[in-house]
Amino acid sequence: MQKIYKFIVLILFLIGGTLFLFGNFINNYNSEIAKTKEKIDGVNFAQEVQKFMLKIQKLRGYSQFDKNSMSEADYALVVSNVTLIKADAQKDIENSKNFKILYPTLYDKEYEYIKNEIETLINSSLEDKALLYQKYTYVIEQLQEKMYYLGFKSKLLLESDGDKYFLIDIMLKHLPNLIEVVGKIRAKTSRAILENSTDAELRYSIKNNCLLCEEHAKQVQKAIEEIQDSDEKARLLAHLENVTLETKKMQEYVKKTVLLSGENIKAIEFFTLSTNVIDKIFTLYRADAEFLNQKLHQKLKELEQAKLYGIIIGVFVVVLILIIIVSMVRSYTLYAQSEKKIKNNLTAIIKLKHDLEKCNTIEEIASQALYFFSERFGVVQGAIYLFHEENNKLYLASSYATNEMKPIVELGEGLVGEVAVQKKSIATEFESSPKKLFRIENITVTPSSICTLPLMNYEKIFGVLQLAFTKKHDIVHNEDFAYFIDMIIGFLRDAKSLDTSEKYIDLIDQYVITSKTNTKGIITDVSDAFTKISGYTKEEIIGKSHSIVAHPETPKEVHEALWKTILEGKIYKGELKNRNKNGNDYWIESTITPQIDKYGNIMGFSAIIRDITDKKRIEHYSITDALTGLYNRRFFDVQFEKDYKISKRDGKNLVLLIVDIDYFKQYNDFYGHQKGDEALKVVAQTMLSLFKRANDYVYRVGGEEFAISFYAATQENAQERAELLRVSIQNQKIEHASSTISGYLSLSIGLSFVPKACTMDVTEIYKVTDKALYRAKNGGRNRVEITSLNP
Question: How many whole angstroms separate alpha carbon 190 and alpha carbon 186?
Fold first, then answer.
């Protein structure tokens, strides 16, 4: 019942969640569509307000005219125009009643107060020009303020799209300000012309308005230039160019007539000229509003299309959910039908697992499995055989209710052997054949059928199970039976693997050299094979530092590199020279692996070691000169190239010395070859004593010719070491009566300083160094000749 309740809750949750998301989607798009429509209304309403303001601004301008300051014909024209504008404005006021219906969210009571003020002003008989100018200006400022506030109410000023934002800014702010400034210039300049006024305050006000006019025009241009749409920008800039030209013309007239008191022009003519400027600005205003309207209508269309697509997708999702719900109902029905069966099987599986976990050996596991089959499936007799790949035979692991089973069965022998070969089950019925009797606890049992099944492990034969029943039983096709077989095979496999693993571990301990240390290098465990090669017992070596077997001649750089690698969590693999307890040297190839926990912390290190002492001896003989014990020419050809590559990789300076014993042939001829060999050994030992750093190499490359390579910080340092060698040999005072330069054995040395940026190959370097040796010989021998190789 509880599960049915959860299922119903899940279905309701799916349906409710889908409807909520779908409703939220529709509401969001409806909200965006409503906002966009409101913005379109805002644009249209703003245009109506601006057109009405143009008429009020024109009336303000005409209010500055009087019949005493102009001809009767001009004044009659002014009166006629004022009458027409007032009638038109009155008509607009009457039509504005429809705005409550057209723009219900945008039109408010404040417009009624402004309309009443305008009607009062239109119908008044005031003749004071200054007062009329102030009242008209006050009304216009109120309308401008309402129009800018309209931008917030219609959410136009909240638009985030780049082009629309700048178009709105131009329409609601910059162009109305520009029109108003030009309107003020029109009214004040007309008044100044009519009165022929030279009033400083009026002239300052006109001049200030002219500057504001230029500033507002720049702001309009700046906003237009921010627009990304090139076509719109070009058209608006063209309109602005016309406005700029007319504005400059108007300002020139203002400058000549009022500010400089130069040229005379009729007030009505200037009024017409400035009105033309306002008309040009309003043309730009309408173009801007038209572009804005186009963009808003395009956005509205896109939103409505997206909403339609969303509705279609939503319907599809709802249908899909209904299909899923139907499928879930069907699945739940099947689940409810099989739940009871699964519970029973699960209980049996848990019990079997619990019983098998108590078993420690293969025989115990097999016996417990057969006992389980007897209880669960009514088995009266059974046996389990396990296959051994080593000899391809089946061994009896356990039997139930019989003592007649063979302990070892060959492949293909009897039912058990045949099933192992075919890897297929074989069922045997006894209905028409003589039945064999089995005695179980003094009760005679007559089986009706025997089923012999292969136990498979990853498609390979693992063993054979044979079961006997008193009734016909199709156990092979029983789904539950497969679960139990898999579990039993798993336990048998693990027990067999554990038995095999223990044997392998013993073998590994005896014959594989391994060790474990903590992060400080203290040995925590070693194999028996390690104790044999090191000469230490486990008791002697566990708890000691691994350096106990380190060879004293191993350069400290080798151990530093080893520790740097493994402490970074990387695997180290390399060859090391060690010394055992008895003081004998041996070589190993060691692979050291950091042991890392699940948090990435290094807990210790494990090493697998291979004894390569014989290999290193053979290598040593192959690269060593037999007489002197120095490296031979073969090793020089390999190692010097490696050193050169390392110098370029690590940014080091490499030095090569080629050394020749002066007049050594004459020495051999005079003292004999035995003395000559002894002299070569003395020279070799002297070289080894002076060049014994980790990266110093000494070679015998010919009869009396040697090579030495090492790294040096400077050429001076390299020269000092070469000179020390030359002087050391001379100080040996090995008599050389056949030498023409000294009474003792001496050396000629060619030195090449190879900077890290050098691009020559090793063959060229050797040739250059050999030439330096040649110069040393020609220059008097017993000397060092230096060559510095340029990059």
Answer: 6
